[in-house]
Amino acid sequence: MEELPPLTQYTPKQAVQLQKELSGQLVFSPLPASEVKTIGGADISYNRFSDIIYAGIVVLSFPDMQLIEECWIKTTATFPYIPGLLSFRELPALLPVWQALQHKPNVMALDGQGIAHPRRLGIAAHFGLVTGCPAFGCAKSVLVGDFEEPNLPKGSVAYMYHHNEPVGAALRTQTGVKPVYISAGYKITLPDALAIIQQCTTQYRIPEPTRQAHLLVNRIRTLHKSNLT
């Protein structure tokens, strides 16, 4: 991938154009679960109406989900909060965390979208393209994609379509709970992403990589907030 200006230098209009260009560079290759020994989870946390953000990545063993490493950063976002352009706000915080990791995982799950995105470049796809690491999205809500509700039992899947293209899948991680939304981002296929993330679910709706990352950044944010009072 060619060297590009820092993401913080783009206007929203330029960011939309860059997404369209970068989506054409995505590749999707098989990554069987048998080849995965470690998995990372990434998330962002911030206080409402604040540009201070906390970005964190956890690295877990796979498939037993034991914590190997966690890393985080506190920084200031310089790109506005605009749905569909969140990678321009959040990637500048996540990338230094990625670079600081001592144990780079075989695959990354990010709390957000892969190609289930209006321009096929959600944060998981953008992250994978920039870092070269296989990555997929594990989102709590839908950005784009029509689907029928998956069946109620744990493990049920319903594929999501946008403009008649398959972009992801709604996955029931626990019987009867609201699904999570999985989409391939980079160097992984949707079937492989589903097979991997289903081995990352315990008794919670949110799979362990993104759940542990969420707990990390919220813990750090709360700690910093309490230290200011």
Any guess at the CATH architecture? Answer: 2-Layer Sandwich
Instruction: Kindly report the spatial arrangement of strands forming the biggest sheet.
Output: 3-2-1-4-5-8-7-6
Structural class: alpha+beta
Q: Helicity level, as a percent range?
A: 25-40%
CATH class: Alpha Beta
- The number of distinct structural domains comes to 1
What would the principal axes of the Cα set say about the shape? globular
Query: Could you list the spans in which at least 5 consecutive residues all have pLDDT below 50?
Result: none
Count of helix runs: 5
* Main sheet makeup: 8 strands, mixed
Order of helices and strands: HEEEHEHEEEEHH
In total, how many beta strands? 8
Task: Evaluate the radius of gyration.
Answer: 17 Å
Name given to the CATH homologous superfamily: archaeoglobus fulgidus dsm 4304 superfamily
**Global mean pLDDT:** 94
Structure summary:
Helices cover 28% and strands 25% of the residues.
Describe the structure.
By secondary structure, the protein is of the alpha+beta class. The protein has a single domain (18-146, 182-223), classed as archaeoglobus fulgidus dsm 4304 superfamily (archaeoglobus fulgidus dsm 4304 fold, 2-Layer Sandwich). Helix content is 28%, strand content 25%. It contains 5 helices and 8 strands; from the N terminus they run H-E-E-E-H-E-H-E-E-E-E-H-H. It has an 8-stranded mixed β-sheet with strand order 3-2-1-4-5-8-7-6, sandwiched between helices. Strand 4, helix 3 and strand 5 (135-139) form a beta-alpha-beta unit. Helix 2 packs across helix 3 (123-131). The radius of gyration is 17 Å and the shape is globular. The model has no long low-confidence stretch (mean pLDDT 94).
